[in-house]
Each structure stands twice: as structure tokens, then as C-alpha cells.
């Protein structure tokens, strides 16, 4: 049951980012203004289309509440605790996302993290991934914004790969499994994160050119 409410928690983050993205684009670009009288479109159909997954999750939640309200309550409390623990991370990333979207020129991102940045951009991505705190999926909206601004997918792949190091857990791992093992393991992860980014760029570029 906790797993189920974890999924609701993940979709809650997804909805939050969807709303943030909608507000940004409608404010700066006017891309999401809905004309209720445009060609007789039904706004309710648009809502169902955009939030079909969330609606299905809500229906399942209501059914589970009828079947066993106690387990649903325990799962909900667990999911809410996880959500609030990540709340500051989500807000911080949303703030960074907005700053990048408004103030950082596209050519700057492309120069630092784009295909033309080469190994330098891949290295920056691996460093950022090493320093990431929290689940990687929380950073996906930020990665999406960086790609829209010109960052290469290889850099994003490297960042997600390097996230496996989890720098904040290195002391704990060293104390339990031994420092030689932890240091060697993390060096391997860091090395293969860079290699994976280079391979990803190579494969993606060749696929895009065909």
C-alpha cells in the first residue's frame, strides 16, 4: 500500500511541475491560454486529456478507501512525509528552473553544456550529478529546461549516471563497507558516467543524422 501511495506522491510532483511549467509559459510566451469559445471545444475534455493518469489514480484511491480505509490512511501518511521531506528540494529546483528559463541565454547553455562543449560539458554534468541530493526524477524538469536551452542529451545522461555516487552517503558507506571499496566503486561510477555521456552523444548524433 505504501508503494501505491508513493506513486501518487510521484504524480503529485509531476502535476506540480506541469502547473509550474504552464504558468511560466503562459506568462512569458502566452502558449497556454485557453479560449473557451474556440471552435466549440469542451474545456472538460481538455482537462481529462491532460490529467488522465491523475484521474485514474484518484479513482483507484477512492476504491481503496472503500475497501480498507486504515491501510490507505497509513500509506497516505507515509507518502505525505516523503513529499514534505522533498518540498524544499522541489521549490529550490523550481526557482533554479525559473532563473535559467528567464535570465540565462540559450547560447550560453549551449556553449557550456551543448554538443560543442565536448568533454568539458560532460565533465560538468558528472560533477553536478555527484553533488545532486534527492531522487533524480525531481531534477527531470530542470534537465528538460536545460535541453530546451541547448544542453546535450549526453550531458544529461552523464548527470543522471553520476547521481549514483550519492556523495552525502560516502562516509556512511566507507564506515560500513570499507573506504577502499567505496572510493574504488565511486571512481568507477564517475568514470563510466563520463564514458556513457560520450557514447550517448555519439549514438544520438548518428541517429539524428540518419
UniProtKB/TrEMBL annotation:
It comes from candidate division WOR-3 bacterium. This is Permease. The keyword Membrane applies. It holds the Pfam family ArsP_1. It is found in: Cell membrane. It comes from the Bacteria. It is a multi-pass membrane protein. Belongs to the UPF0718 family. One of its GO terms (cellular component) is plasma membrane. The keyword Transmembrane helix applies.
